[in-house]
Amino acid sequence: AERLGLGAEDVAGAPVPEGRDVASLAAELEAVRGRIRRLGTVNLGAVTELEEIEARLSEMCGQRDDLEKSIHDLGATISKLNRLSRQRFEETFNQVNRIFQEVFPKLFDGGKGYLELTEPDNLLESGVAVFAQPPGTKLSTLTLLSGGQKAMTAIALLFALFLHKPSPFCVLDEVDAPLDFANVGRFMEIVREMARRSQFLLITHDKTTMEACDILYGVTMPEKGITKMVSVDLSQAA
Fold first, then answer.
1. Which has the closest alpha carbon to 229: 238, 217, 215, 237?
2. How far apart are CA 33 and CA 38, in angstroms?
3. What pLDDT is stored for residue 16 in this prediction?
4. Which of 10, 25, 101, 189 has its CA 20 to 30 A from that of 214?
5. Which residues contact 70 (CB under 8 A, 6 or more apart)?
6. DSSP 125
7. C-alpha–C-alpha distance, residues 213 and 201, integer Å
8. Distance, CA of 203 to CA of 206 (rounded, Å)
9. pLDDT tens-digit profile of 112-155?
10. How far is C-alpha 126 from the chain's CA centre?
């Protein structure tokens, strides 16, 4: 009565199913009791353990949702950055290419040069090919030019990049070393033109370059192990 909530009168008044007798019902009851005994003792902490597992599952599901949201947000950010990078790269490339085509004939006193993308349909992975045609030569890539022509073409590209986004000053370390007398003269003409907006610091051993500068700073060693700085203001001397 305590376990099932039934009294003696309830049990006595319960009808016996047709085709069954008390003996068969008793045998079935004993079989059920045997199965219950084989289940073992009841784990009284199972409910608490279940609640803990459910709480942990809920926490892990929340972390999973946060990770999935982060992955989605990161993918959207990467797509935005790639789109912005492609746009800015294309704009910068077109402007630098335009300036390069203007500077090249000034340095070579003629001819033409231009830039071309190796993979125009894939801007983020594309390389940049340099094509140059100095006066009296055929159009070719940078690798087929002579040493002096390579240097002048590289200077033209460097100046194109600088003119696209000028900085307050520019340092050039012996870029005129492979140039002949005529090329140095054209090189310095462009430097003087750009010096109206930026300050240029030139490291050189070329006399033509020195003559075109406003101020010279020389380092000498009058005594062994002792250096001395010498400066000459050519603008005042003129």
1. 217
2. 9
3. 64
4. 101
5. none
6. T
7. 9
8. 9
9. 999 999 999 998 899 999 999 999 889 988 888 888 899 999 99
10. 14
Selection from 237, 185, 178, 176 nearest residue 212 by Cα: 185
Q: Which of 29, 49, 46 is nearest to 37 (CA)?
A: 29
Instruction: Check if the beta carbon of residue 210 is closer than 8 Å to that of residue 204.
Output: yes
Q: Name the amino acid, one letter, at 105.
A: P
Tokens representing residue 232 in the block: 């000459």
The CA–CA distances, whole Å, from 169 to 50, 122, 216 equal: 71, 34, 16
Query: Contact at 8 Å (CB) between 155 and 186?
Result: no
Residue 108 CA to residue 105 CA, distance in Å, equals: 5
Name residues whose C-beta falls within 8 Å of residue 218's C-beta, 6 or more positions apart in sequence.
229, 230, 231, 232
Q: Three-state SS for 198?
A: coil
pTM: 0.68
* Two tokens, residue 180: 């002949």
Q: CA-to-CA distance for 73 and 123, rounded, in angstroms?
A: 24
> CA angle, 117 as apex, 114 and 120 as ends, to 5°?
140
Structure tokens, 25: 């019902």
